[in-house]
Structures are given as C-alpha cells and as structure tokens.
Design a protein that fits this description.
Blueprint (H helix, E strand, L loop, with lengths): L1 H7 L3 H5 L3 H19 L3 H30 L6 H37 L7 H7 L2 H9 L3 H25 L9 H15 L13 H18 L30 E7 L28 E2 L2 E3 L5 H10 L7 H4 L5 H7 L3 E6 L9 H5 L5 E3 L1 H4 L11 H14 L6 E6 L27 H27 L7 E7 L4 E2 L5 E2 L6 H4 L3 E5 L6 H8 L5 E3 H11 L31 E4 L12 E5 L2 E5 L6 E4 L10 E2 L5 H10 L3
Parallel strand pairs: 1-6, 1-7, 3-11, 4-5, 4-6
Antiparallel strand pairs: 2-10, 7-10, 8-9, 12-13, 13-14, 14-15, 15-16
Length: 636
C-alpha cells in the first residue's frame, strides 16, 4: 500500500482524470484518420501505443502541479494565496493554452490542408522559410478558421482547468513517482526524436506538435540540426500571363509515370529487339527511349522536386518552394490535373509540398490504403486503378495531366511469391549480394507487370491517340558496387542512371516528335529535359524561358531541333529539400563525370572508356570547362 501511494499517490482515480488531454488527442486522431491507424502493421501500432504513454507523461505531472496550486487557493496566508492563484492562471495561460490551441484545433486544421500533422521539422522549417508560416494560415481557410482554432484552444484550456479543479482535493502530498518519471521520460523522447512525427506519424496529434516544439528548442540551444532544408507548404511564384499559341495539334493528354529506386539496367527503356521486356513488350513495344536518362540527385525528395520544377541541384530552398511545378503550368495551359501516388507522403511531411500545386485530384498512400510499411507505401496496383478512374471521369474533350507515382520497388522491395523469375533470391541485405539483387529484380518485375496491365487499359480508352506517357524512375539503386546498398551514397551510374521512355498515341506523338526523341539515342538526358518536354507538350514551350526560375540548360526532347550539344549538368546527393551527411557533388558533360566531396579533391571518370566508373583520374583530366563549373557550383 505504501509503495502504491509512493508511485501513484493516495487517489489513483483522481490522478487518472489528468489523462483527459491524452484521451482527447486519441479521440481527435481516431476521427481524423481512424482507418489509417487500423492499417498500421504491428510495429506501427506498437509505436503508436508508445505515443499514448508519451502524451500521458507530458500532461499528467504539469496538471498535477496545477492542481496543487489550486488547492492553495484557500490558505490563510494572503500572499501565498495570491501567489497560488496567479501561478494557476499563468500556468494555464502560458502553458496549456498555446499547446491546446496548436495540438488540437491547430492540428485539425493543418491535417485538413496537408493530410498530415505538424511534426518535428514543420515549425522549424516554416520559420526558416519565413513566408511558409503565412502560407499555413492562408491555407487553413478564412479568418474564421483561425478564430475557431483559438476558440477551441480556449475551450479545451477551460475544460482542462475544470478537470484539474475537480481532481485537486484528492491530489495532495508529494508528487507521485510515476508521473514525475513519465514527464522526464516524455521530454527525453521528444528531445532525442523517439517520437514518430516524420515517417508514418504513428503518434497522437499533441505528441507530433510538442515534438516539433521541443526540436525547435533543441536546435536553438545546441545549434545542431540548424538547417534550412526540407519541405513545407509552398509559396508559388506568380506566373506571367500566358497565351497558348494556336496549333494544328490538339492538346495532348500527358501522363508522367515516376517509379522508385529502379536503375536503368533493371527495366527496358529501348524497344525490342534491342531490349526485351518480360511484360512491357506486350503493350509498349513502340516505346522510344529518352536517351541515357540521368537523375540529378540519387534521393527521392531531391529528384522529385527537381523533376517537377526543372531547377538545378544548386537551387536555394526558397526557389524550391516558389518555382512553378508542372501541375501549375498545366492548369495555366487549360489542363485538368491529378497526382496519384502509392508513396507514403507522410514521410518528412512531403504532403505539404504538393498542397499548393494546383492539383485537382490528389490521392496518396493514406487514401489508397494498404500502407503496411512506410517505405513501401500502398500497393502500386491501387494507384494504377485510381489513376484509371481519374482519367475515365475526365470530361471528353478536356485535356488532362497526371503524375502516377509508384513506390513498391523501394527497399525492402515488395514481391509476389508467385512471380520470382530471378533466382536464387534472398531478402537478406547482408547476405549474398547477387541473391539480394535478384529479390530486387523480382520486385521490379512485379511492378512491370502492374504497369503493363495499366498501360493496356489506358491504350484501350477512346482518348489514347491524344495521350503521351513518359516513364522514368527517381533514382537508381546500389548493390555493393561501391561497398554500399540502396541509394544516396554516390553519383555513379548505378544510382543516377534510370530508365526513361515515351509511348503515345499517333496524334499526340506524331512523326515529328518521334523523330526528335530518337535524336537523343545514346546521349545523356536529364530531369530538367523531361520537365521541359512536358511543358512543351502543354504548348508552353515558347513561354518556358519567361517563367519564374527558368533553367537555360533544359531541352525539350520532342523539339524538332533535337540533340546538338552536350550541356553542363550538376549532380548532388544534397538538395534544397534534402540534407545529406555524406554529401557528394558532381558535374557531368556527356560521358565525362567529375565527382567529389566537400573538402576532398575532384575525381574524373571517362565513362565511354570506363563504363562502370572504376578507374578515377585526376580532376584536371576532365578539362577546364568542367572544373570551372564544379568550382562555381560547389565552392570549397
């Protein structure tokens, strides 16, 4: 009995009343995303369960202290009585009200906009980007939404004070041991990032916000993590007036299919017989390769943002959050827009980046369902089915632009046990690397089969003749070529050479455009070129250079001028939206690659002579043009 009193106090039931904030957070979360929570794998559910304990730890001890202050309201000493009442009021005004306002009403509003909660990096990045905080408030709706948020915070604060007053008579004596240790443990978890507010967000909304607040304090105190990189709500740059020139060609429907972690040698870009694809040849034997397509960054965030904006890797964080994205340009040209993805956009709050992008139909992994593992995302076939539904519901005669963003080929690589043509195979990443790579290739085969079924149905639709499909991957994947696995390690071909091909109907992809595409055969092409190609297909090619943040090195691959000169292109593992501890920078011109790391000398590779980039030469061997570009873009 004595031990129980020491741990939980004389009245554990009265102490349990102080769990009301955690209970409220749970109710709010279930109402907002109950189906998503049920879909978590056992590990995700366990992490979510721990967040209940962290929330309870954060609230109970402070509210117990408030109850003790309230109990002193009737002491005979007037000074102590006044101090207790002032302390009680200040506690609720300075502690409870701000947290209640943003952890409940604020999270509801933020979730309404970006389908995610404010988390570890949200607040810090918002202030770093300055204009983003204003964008949050603008995106939440009218001033009435902000009033509702504040009113809800006041109401919750009043409710908490009522709970505290009710419990106060039974909460005397010393602080119980359990709430004291739980509070210290909660702060420790917030401080060292043991709260999942960045991946699946397997945490209560109050935990997510407090995690962001504590992380901002941690950055201010320690200076660690003081970075301006990441994603948040964009502040789109104002577009100039655009007049789409009259053309004999109807506006083509444009679909950009972006897959995940697929390297160039894992999926056929060239048509048969140059490259025989197990499934794709059934529906895309007429595909045209986009040359030797090369991503500017070997990570998903950087690659996606650079593809959607056409920016170079050296673009600053404010440019990345302002430059027009393809969906905005499509709307200017009169297109209906969509983004359907099996990717988990809760990861690092990536949802926020696309909220202000002018997307008519936005469907992510959380809406598709079946998100069992945060890196794999939802099943790709759900994304392809949803994209077909979006296309079919588009009114006849309305041109559409869509991005179909797949995910299942990310590690740990989703497979179908009935489709494993590459053997022997193993899911063990530290075992035989060839067997592990076969597991990856089986995953790519599953996705190829899914894509084949999707393209078969798309080609059967009445609007196919006016449709162009561009398929590529965000980056490649390493299998011990440099001693590592996965990606974001290097800028060599296994991580930056990706598949890329175009297939389309006879009117959208006519002989002139097909001929232009074929001029790039055997030449390096880049994501900026894909961006320019899509803009050109919209009919905005002539206006592209007048857009905010133009990339002068970008080439339209369907332009009649075709290939003429190899541009200077910059590569990096770190971008405006992704920090990387192991930064690698590079410059590429045709088949010459110059790579290096900050503080280290440049190395040159002649990829025509050394296709696997295993024989580094002195950086000077790449010539003055490349060294000058490297030194200008990546100063020591």
């Amino acid at each position: 009995m004595r031990l129980k009193r020491a741990l939980l106090g004389d009245h554990p039931r009265a102490l349990a009343l102080l769990l009301a904030p955690t209970a409220l957070a749970l109710v709010v979360d279930v109402l907002l995303r109950g189906g998503v929570l049920l879909g978590y794998a056992p590990q995700g559910k366990a992490i979510y369960g721990s967040s209940l304990l962290i929330s309870a730890g954060f609230w109970v001890l402070p509210l117990w202290c408030a109850a003790r202050l309230y109990a002193l309201r009737d002491v005979t000493n007037a000074r102590r009585r006044l101090a207790a009442r002032a302390g009680f009021f200040l506690f609720f005004a300075a502690w409870v009200l701000p947290f209640a306002t943003f952890s409940y009403g604020g999270q509801v509003l933020y979730h309404r906009v970006v389908h995610a909660y404010m988390g570890r990096d949200t607040v810090r990045l918002g202030f770093a980007l300055r204009g983003t905080v204003a964008e949050w408030f603008n995106a939440w709706g009218s001033s009435l939404a902000l009033v509702a948020m504040v009113v809800s915070g006041i109401a919750i604060t009043i409710g908490m004070s009522a709970v505290v007053k009710r419990a106060a008579p039974k909460l005397g004596g010393r602080p119980p041991i359990v709430p004291a240790f739980a509070f210290a443990g909660a702060l420790f978890c917030f401080w060292i990032d043991m709260v999942d507010s960045r991946f699946l967000q397997a945490a209560l909304p109050d935990d997510c916000f407090v995690h962001g607040f504590v992380h901002a304090v941690r950055v201010g105190v320690t200076g660690k993590g003081r970075t301006r990189r990441g994603v948040s709500l964009r502040t789109p740059a104002k577009l100039p007036p655009v007049v789409v020139p009259a053309s004999d060609r109807p506006k083509p429907n444009v679909l950009l299919v972006l897959t995940e972690s697929v390297r160039a040698d894992a999926l056929c870009s060239d048509p048969p017989p140059a490259c025989k694809a197990r499934f794709l040849d059934e529906v895309a034997a007429d595909r045209i390769s986009m040359g030797k397509l090369t991503t500017p960054s070997s990570g998903t965030f950087g690659a996606c943002v650079l593809l959607w904006t056409g920016l170079p890797v050296t673009a600053g964080v404010n440019a990345a959050h302002s430059a027009p994205v393809l969906w905005e340009l499509a709307r200017v040209a009169g297109y209906r827009t969509s983004y359907v993805t099996s990717q988990n956009l809760l990861f690092e709050n990536f949802n926020a980046f696309v909220q202000n992008a002018g997307i008519d139909d936005l469907v992510t992994a959380t809406e598709l369902g079946g998100l069992r593992q945060e890196q794999l995302g939802a099943p790709d076939e759900r994304a392809t089915e949803e994209m077909l539904r979006v296309v079919k519901k588009t009114p006849a005669g309305t041109p559409w632009f869509g991005v179909l963003h797949l995910s299942n080929t990310h590690a740990p690589y989703r497979i179908d046990p009935a489709l494993q043509p590459f053997a022997p195979h193993s899911t063990n990443p530290v075992g035989d690397v060839d067997e592990f790579r076969n597991h990856y290739r089986n995953s790519v085969a599953l996705q190829e089969r899914t894509l084949t079924g999707f393209l078969r149905e798309l080609r059967a639709l009445p609007g196919w003749d006016d449709t162009v499909v561009l398929l590529l991957s965000d980056h490649g994947e390493q299998f011990r070529e440099r001693g590592g696995l996965y990606h974001l390690h290097s800028l060599f071909d296994e991580e930056v050479r990706v598949p890329g091909f175009v297939v389309g109907g006879s009117r959208a992809l006519d002989d002139e455009r097909r001929a232009a595409l074929k001029t790039y055969d055997g030449h390096r092409t880049y994501f900026a070129d894909v961006n320019a190609t899509v803009v050109d297909l919209f009919g905005l090619g002539a206006a592209r250079k007048a857009m905010p943040f133009p990339n002068p090195d970008a080439r339209s691959l369907v332009d009649k001028r075709g290939w003429s000169i190899e541009p200077v292109m910059l590569l990096s593992t770190a971008t405006a939206v992704w920090d990387e501890d192991n930064v690698r920078n590079g410059v590429i011109i045709g088949e010459r690659l110059l790579v290096g790391a900050p503080g280290q000398p440049w190395s040159c590779f002649d990829m025509a002579r050394d296709p696997f980039q295993i024989e580094p030469m002195s950086g000077d061997r790449c010539g003055r043009r490349m060294r000058a570009a490297a030194d200008a873009a990546f100063p020591p």
